[in-house]
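Figure 2 data, in text form.
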Amino acid sequence: MPREARKISYSGFYHVMIRGVNKEVIFKDDRDRRNFLHLLKYYKIKLNCIVHAYCLMDNHVHILIEDNNNKLGELMRNVTSVYAGEFNKKYKRVGHLFQERFKSQNIENDYYLLRLVRYVHRNPEKAGICKVEEYKWSSYTEYLYGEKIIERKLILNKYNKNINIAIKIFKESILNNKEDSIDNVYFRNKITMKDKKEFVKYIIKTEDINIIKTKAKKEVRDIIKKIKETKKLTASDIYEITGISKNIIYKI
């Protein structure tokens, strides 16, 4: 059965994820990590793509890429195939290193974009490895002190046109751990009911979820639409959390 064609992002922005086969480690030392970043930098220049953020974990990678020339597939095939070949030779192993082809999620608005920047950089802290600012293998320090692989101007401009103010806002946003459960709803495949409840509280901007029943019909409709934008909460989830009739939810 042929693979489903990858959907083209209207904005040109993609959240790219690659993972080791069977969740195996793909970076055994810092030399491996440096080699992967070298390949990413080389091919993104060669294929005229822009990297806006990245984070290398032991068995997976997150990258925020802008591609307006339909070169994303070629970029990731080159990076992963060359890296896997060198990794297998170095460690005397055979077979696939990466799990299937890379995954990508289209990012079509600034809200998703900035939330993804947060999510990518917070990976090491959420995994219990170290604080965000202590981790060497993400683009966090490039945003603060200057570019090596990424291009930071476009993202920083979305925080503020003054670069010093933008960096300050960026730093505060990334180091804030109070919205991790909200990030999970947008970017993780498996989320808990606790995450879902926290997300609904975030949308309605109050700890008292029952307050939604007192709102006007138009407000309720707008809230439900916003909740469903993530495509992670089912009608049953929304009914269980809010008590709003399933018929109303389905109609919306």
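Caption note: The chain has a mean pLDDT of 92.
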